[in-house]
Amino acid sequence: MNIAYFRKTQKSVEEAVAALKDGLSKRGIAVVGERRFPSGSVLIQFLDEKKTEKILKEDRMLIGLVPMSALVETRDGAVSVGAVNPELLTGTEHYEALGETIDDLAKGLRTLVNEAAGVGEPKVEKIKLYSTATCPYCRMEKEYLEKNKVKFDLVMVDADRQAAADMIRKSGQNGVPQTEVIFDDGDSEMIVGFDRERINQRLGISA
Description:
Elements: E1 4-9, H1 13-26, E2 30-36, E3 42-47, H2 49-58, E4 69-75, E5 78-84, H3 95-117, E6 124-131, H4 136-147, E7 153-156, H5 161-171, E8 178-183, E9 188-192, H6 196-203
Parallel strand pairs: 6-7
Antiparallel strand pairs: 1-5, 2-3, 3-4, 4-5, 6-8, 8-9
């Protein structure tokens, strides 16, 4: 999964920063810090007090994964707005207890970033399923996607070294299956493992 969620915007950096702060304020999320870098990027530190306290009561060691940062930057001539992805917390042993809190945070911050950027939810343009011939979970996901009439490109990484290297570069993981969801704005997201819940969410499959 992506560590952060970013969207490109037609707004200026200052307009995007103002929209981001306004969105946080409307949600009752406090801005606790702001840092402007010489490059022109602006880092916003924020705190959703109730949700953060709930996460830390479950396990204080999760403090490093609590979403508290947003960034507005100019890269390659385009302004982007992004925030830390709360779904990082789904990889912890506490997901069962914190699932609703994490899902609320993830949906809220994705919506916040979209609003600040002045764009809608990204549309899926293409899907790649990275697989091997001997992986049972790969077969399960392939059958699941076919059952739900999802079009995808099957990439056999055990037969294609370059594809395997590309997959690892994009996700930092070498296990399969991995699903690359490519959006209409050119960005993409890697889903590691047959994560049915996230696949359903990203591809609009009804559970």
